[in-house]
Amino acid sequence: MLEAAGTNIFNYMFVETYGMNTDQLVPWNSFLAGDLDGKGLTSALQKISDKVREDDSVDKVKVS
After folding, report:
1. Which residue from 9, 11, 17 is spatially nearest to 60, judged by alpha carbons?
2. For 16-60, what is each residue's pLDDT tens digit?
3. Three-class SS of residue 43?
4. Distance CA 8, CA 6 (A)
5. Is residue 61 situated within a structural domain?
6. Which domain holds residue 43?
């Protein structure tokens, strides 16, 4: 499929791009351990994303 797409592909690497991997490990590990439900996981991940979004010192990648 990727070969057929040629150059018409993209990859969102926001976790690596914005350095959120370490922060996201905490809620993911809690979720996988059964200490956090799906709602708690998505809420925690959203807070991490919001923090990056609101941080003007972080260069954002514009996707159009």
Report:
1. 17
2. 888 899 999 999 999 999 999 999 999 999 999 999 999 999 998
3. helix
4. 6
5. no
6. 2-54
